[in-house]
Structures are given as C-alpha cells and as structure tokens.
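Internal ticket #5521
Category: modeling
Description: The requester needs a full-assembly model to guide mutagenesis choices. All entity lines are attached below as received. Residue total reported by intake: 300.
Assigned to: D.W.
Attached entities:
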Amino acid sequence: MNAETDKSELAERVKLIESMIGEGRRSTTKWGWSFVLWGVAYYVAAAWATWGQSWLAWPVTMVAAAVISSVVGSRIQRGKPETTLGRSVGAVWIAMGCALMVVLISLGFSGHGDAHVFIAIVGAMLAVAHATSGMILKWKAQVACAVVWLASAVAACFGSAKVAVLAFLIATFLGQIVFGIYAMVLESRRRKRDGAVNA
Amino acid sequence: MPELPELNPVIHGKLRLALLSLLSGVDEAEFTWLRAKTGATDGNLGAQLLKLEEAGYVSVEKRFVLRKPQTLYRMTEAGRAALTEYVAALRELLGGAASSF
C-alpha cells in the first residue's frame, strides 16, 4: 500500500466519521402530526363548548388529546435513539402541557376564569413553548408561531370576548394546524432524502 | 522528522468507527437503529459491538419493553476520549486537512 492509498483511506475514514455523526445527530422525530392533533382538538372543544353547552367539552377533549399524543408519540419514537436536543425540546412541551392542564382545570373548577383569562394563559404558554423550542432548534417558522400565539394572548387581554375567541381561533389555525402540516411536509421530505448509510 | 501518531486499531475498523461516531451524537441507541444506519448484518454488528464493549468504549443495557427485548448501547467516557484521540491522530496524519467535528 503506498502513501497515496494510505492518505485516501484516511480521508475516507474522516468522511465516514462526519457522515455518521451527522446521522446520529439528525432529528429523527416526527411531531408535526401532534400540532395538527392539538389544533383540531382546540376546535372540537371550542365547538362542543359553544354548541353543546357542556362544561365537559374542554377537559374531556384535552385529556383525550393528551392520551392520543402520548400513545401515538411513544409508538412513533419506539426504536429511535434519544438525543439531548430531542429531550430538551420534549421537556419544554411536556412541562408546558402539564402546567397548562393543571392551571386550566383549576380555573375551570374555581369558576374564576373567563374567555379572556383562558385565552391569555393558553396563548402565553404556547408562545413560550414555541419560542423556546424554535430557539433551541433555530427554526424561524416556530418562532413565528410563538409571535402568533403571543399576539392572541395580548388580543385576549385588550379585546372583547368576541375578539379574544377570534384571536384564539386564528392562532390555533396558524400556530398549530398550518405549522403542523408544514412540519409534516418537512419531515416527509427529510425521510425521503435520508436512506441507510452503509458503513 | 516528527513521529507520526498511531491509529487506535479498535476504532480504526470501518464498522466500529461508524458505530462510535453514530453513538457520539445520541444519548443511547437501540441495536435495530444501529443496524439500520450502518446496513450491517446482525452477526457482524453484534461482533463489532462486542469488541467495542470489551474495550470499554460502549456500555450495553438489556431490558424488556412491552415484553419485547431491547438492547441499548451508550458511548462511555473512555469511548468518547478514544474517538477524540483517534480524530486528532487522523488530523495529524492528514496534515491538518481533516475538518473539525
């Protein structure tokens, strides 16, 4: 083996290391569907509460969405490696979801909440989660979602109940459903692009 | 003339190097994921992972999830140090041509 062959073999090793580190770090998570699911769940709960006049609408829909999210999420993630990045983003959403659930249920039972309070809290919490996740992932689209949710929270503070509800519905559409579909499209493109890299 | 560094023979194997590089980017990984990423056969993959385990570069955890066996591999501190040294040696041999990881 001559020096040139040696060098090309070493350069090949460098390429292998780079591509494998990239493979390991590459996000393999699929979470776009969960944004769509939660967006649809908000619409279902809002419609049920408005036309069904039931106090059960929000708690039942939210608990159902949480159960579906965790079951489907754990099935999708099975067999995939956990990365520090994935765990960080996941922690933000789980912490936000738990806090939101406890506060909203408490407000519901105490009777101290109205549309303004509910929407301001939901908007602010979702804005924080989207912004944190967007900053961790350096994903401008998600930071834009944070701005949309924050705007709905501010609108709920200053506007009438009608304005607050409208702002919530718009933010749900843009910040959850449209964003979720966009994320799913990106995930699908990424899956098509990435095949097994044989060592 | 300065003496050239020697490359760690445990890491230098192509599949073992790929496995250590993959594990360096994740907290832990299942055998099936490593197999999918490397395209190696079960036998070869198992044998190479065993060599890395014997060298103390990876740790193994076997458990059952929903009654299905799961084998998880993690890179150890020794493995991370060995890979770092290997990359530094590669760089030196290539005359600093290798990019930073």
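Resolution: model delivered.
Comment from assignee: The interface with chain A takes residues 12, 14-15, 17-19, 21-30, 32-33, 36-40, 65, 87, 90, 93-94, 97-99, 101 of chain B (CB under 8 Å).
Ticket closed.
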